[in-house]
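queue> pop job 88
queue> type: inverse folding (structure -> sequence)
queue> payload:
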């Protein structure tokens, strides 16, 4: 593997031979194009924020997230973010005293207080909070743009990857429901923007920001720890393959020189880093010292009877008991690896692009699913033939390696759950959303390389076919097309949506 600092070529096509495609590349590379995409995403996100039933029928966790926010909102703001003694009845919200992702709930309690002070009812308060999450998801797209720029990805291809991410159903719907997923993903994209810069040519200051953004991402969602560790590891590894450890020499002297050269930025870095470090030590440090876990089991802090109020604890407890009983009685079903792998792939694919949840029936059109899956397989196959041309720099290797490592880790985690409990807990395409933009960017770069290698009539046919397939995919897989044709029950919609949205869109009787 040979690594360099050289970016991928900045143009998708040759301006002398493909004037139409060159003009399209120039349009997609403009700042205005990104702004249009960002505004369009925000509008779609706001639409779903006020359309989806409160709380979301197909996202049962939203009720718990709302409850945690309102728990903080009901307390005096002077009490701070730390909870200590709570009633057993409160534990339906989860273990709230040492939960690592409390920061999101605490910060969101302030706009919740504001909405309540204005006299908004429960449903409209939820819509306000959802809209804030939509803005956080929009900030994630801005961070994605910075990541692709830092990685040396051509601007047009970066924008297409952003479009594919922003208008993937799960990304838009998740942004429009209350949970820490949207802001934590934005924090991860910010971390990724710094990580690819470290891998490419960053210095000590960039490395420091890598640590700071990692702490931010962990405080917003602790389960991102494997992804953060993989991102940091590969960033430093690939940088080492290019420069060794020369970029880390004389750290004290260089840090002092950097502080004198950019005092304002250095102060911001130190203050933000110190504040996040204090929060990390209070939550993760104490949890590890006292409970030997990043997220302690509820029964380690409260009685088991009290923890049975928490749905996830109760579900896991009952699953373990059922599994143990099946082992004793000899009724445990055998584990079939190939059947599990097929179920994993199909479940993740459908739940990534179509609204998926246990509350309401959801059956996406089989033809649409098969078409999208076929195109995905074909694109990956073509990309595999071009990887040697695409993966020529440390930052590009980072974009390809981190998603693969993370996807394998998620697969292994789900497989362990299936083997140990015979359950499919946490099977959802949303867990692959953080790495989806990287995967799409690498595939698009490889497709572009393949298309540029074609000549004459074959090139024309291939370009027309690729663009046509892309447009058809967008038509069937965008959040609106992947939601409204299937959500034909009033249970999917808020009171506003039932009163305002037209029948031809929702399929509801007036």
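queue> result:
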């Amino acid at each position: 593997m040979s690594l360099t600092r050289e970016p991928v070529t900045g143009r998708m096509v040759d301006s002398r031979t493909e004037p139409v495609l060159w003009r399209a590349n120039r349009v997609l590379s403009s700042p205005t194009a990104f702004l249009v995409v960002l505004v369009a995403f925000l509008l779609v996100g706001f639409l779903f924020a006020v359309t989806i039933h409160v709380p979301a029928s197909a996202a049962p966790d939203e009720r718990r997230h709302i409850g945690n926010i309102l728990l903080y909102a009901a307390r005096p703001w002077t009490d701070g973010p730390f909870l200590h003694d709570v009633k057993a009845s409160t534990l339906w919200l989860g273990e709230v005293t040492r939960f690592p992702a409390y920061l999101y709930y605490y910060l969101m309690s302030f706009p919740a207080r504001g909405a309540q002070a204005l006299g908004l009812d429960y449903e409209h308060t939820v819509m306000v909070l959802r809209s804030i999450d939509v803005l956080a998801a929009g900030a994630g797209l801005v961070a994605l743009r910075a990541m692709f720029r830092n990685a040396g990805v051509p601007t047009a291809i970066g924008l297409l990857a952003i479009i594919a991410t922003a208008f993937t159903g799960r990304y838009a719907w998740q942004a429009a429901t209350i949970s820490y997923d949207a802001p934590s993903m934005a924090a991860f994209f910010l971390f990724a923007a710094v990580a690819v810069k470290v891998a490419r040519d960053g210095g000590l200051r960039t490395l420091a920001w890598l640590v700071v953004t990692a702490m931010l991402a962990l405080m917003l969602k602790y389960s991102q720890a494997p992804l953060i560790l993989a991102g940091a590891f590969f960033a430093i590894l690939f940088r080492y393959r290019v420069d060794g450890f020369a970029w880390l020499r004389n750290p004290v002297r260089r840090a002092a020189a950097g502080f004198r050269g950019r005092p304002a930025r250095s102060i911001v870095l130190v203050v933000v880093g110190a504040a996040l470090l204090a929060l990390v030590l209070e939550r993760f440090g104490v949890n590890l010292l006292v409970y030997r876990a990043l997220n302690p089991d509820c029964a380690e802090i409260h009685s088991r009877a009290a923890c049975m109020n928490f749905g996830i604890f109760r579900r896991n407890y009952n699953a373990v008991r059922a599994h143990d009983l099946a082992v004793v009685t000899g009724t445990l079903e055998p584990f079939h690896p190939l059947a599990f792998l097929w179920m994993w792939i199909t479940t993740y694919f459908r739940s990534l692009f179509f609204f998926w949840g246990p509350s309401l029936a959801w059956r996406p059109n089989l033809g649409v699913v098969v078409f999208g899956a076929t195109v995905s397989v074909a694109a990956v196959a073509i990309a595999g033939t071009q990887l040697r041309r695409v993966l020529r720099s440390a930052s590009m290797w980072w974009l390809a390696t981190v998603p693969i490592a993370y996807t394998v880790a998620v697969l292994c985690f789900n497989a362990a759950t299936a083997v140990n409990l015979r359950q499919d807990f946490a099977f959802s395409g949303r867990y692959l959303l953080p790495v989806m933009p990287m995967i799409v960017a690498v595939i698009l770069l490889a497709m572009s390389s393949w298309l540029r290698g074609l000549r004459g009539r074959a090139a024309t046919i291939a370009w027309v076919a690729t663009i046509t397939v892309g447009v058809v995919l967008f038509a069937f897989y965008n959040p609106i097309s992947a939601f409204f044709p299937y959500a034909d029950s009033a249970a999917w919609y808020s009171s506003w949506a039932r009163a305002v949205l037209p029948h031809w869109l929702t399929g509801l009787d007036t």
